[in-house]
Write a structure and sequence with these properties.
With 265 residues, the protein is mainly alpha-helical. It has nine helices and three strands, in the order αββαααααααβα. The protein has helices spanning 2-37, 65-82, 88-95, 99-121, 128-144, 147-151, 157-181, 193-202, 209-212, and strands spanning 50-54, 57-60, 205-207. A three-stranded antiparallel sheet has the order 2-1-3. A hairpin with a 2-residue loop joins strand 1 and strand 2 (57-60). Helix 2 packs across helix 3 (88-95) and helix 2 runs antiparallel to helix 4 (99-121). It is globular and about 55 Å long.
Length: 265
Amino acid sequence: MKNLFIKFIKSSRLRWVLILAAVAAFVVWSGYTGFQEHQIYVYTDHLDEAAAWVDGDAITLRDLSYYVLLEECIIEKEARIYNPKSSKDYWNIRDDGSAVVRRTIREMGVHDHIFYQKALEEGIELTPEEEAYLENEIQDFWMDLLDEQLERLPTDRETINEEIRRKALAEKYQAKLASEMGIAGVRLSWDGYDYKKLLMAEHQYKKNNKVWNRIRISEVTIHHDKVNFINGHNLGDDSSEDEEIKAIPDEENWIDRMHIRSMFE
């Protein structure tokens, strides 16, 4: 009996040692995983990683390069007026450390991808007049960028120009669909009420925050000091974003925040 009791005690101790070792390993693994998930990506090193998926298609960082350039340019110009000595202050005040801009960029990219695919399905093309207008828009886009952005392009010019062209076709399809529905084109913009309903009803859309939240919008094509004068940091947090779209906004509350005027409205 004594020997059996001793064996029982030893086996119990071993069991507890194994349990504690497993718990310790889990804690270490969780900490390491959490640390990795909060590391900031260098945008150009992850161009082919997905920020989202739509109907099985990946919306990659490369696909969003144009929108990153556009939004960072717009906000940074406002920021330099607000505080010429520390434009990052404006980013943190206006957009909670760039979280709102980050969401805007991805949603615009998703919207244009969906409508561009629809334009291809229906054989929509630009007329010669629209092509000429688009070329002027492309030239204006490059002229409007900050000098620093031209030195920190997230991808090559040809890719960005192609993204602008796809956006033009998406806008033409948007105008056509709005006409068929008998509504204003703005209601089918990326944050429009009717577009939100369409997205939820007809498409499978999933966000990839594990990648997108590791992009520091406001620091991709421009650069700020490491320390911010307002709150001591530069990084916003999108951790509260849902992975899936959960609800349609009330029709009375939807707002169009598009920064570029449509070619076709």
